[in-house]
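User: Show me a protein chain along with its predicted structure.
Assistant: Here is one chain, sequence first, then structure tokens.
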Amino acid sequence: MQARRPEFHRARSRFLDPFNHAYSIQDACDNQEELDRIWEAFLDNGGPAEHCGWLKDRRGLSWQIVPRVLGEMISDANRERAKRVTEAMLAMVKFDIAALERAHRG
């Protein structure tokens, strides 16, 4: 098994600001089982869930747990498919890959 490589995202924030979405980590998962396992581990360790795949760890650092295919779906050249996926995504807390794929298919 190969080690995972989360993506790190940082935006400007003031010195000594508490953790917020300006600094976050994105973890792209290959399937629903992997996404569920990581999501539940965060919740079991005291992290609250937020909208669109976001949650915070017990220290307040923001993580977004996303399906790897999401980027492909929302960047689809067919803008109607991409719009349906985006609308489905915005209604979710934890991502449901099957629901996103249904939205993509229409």
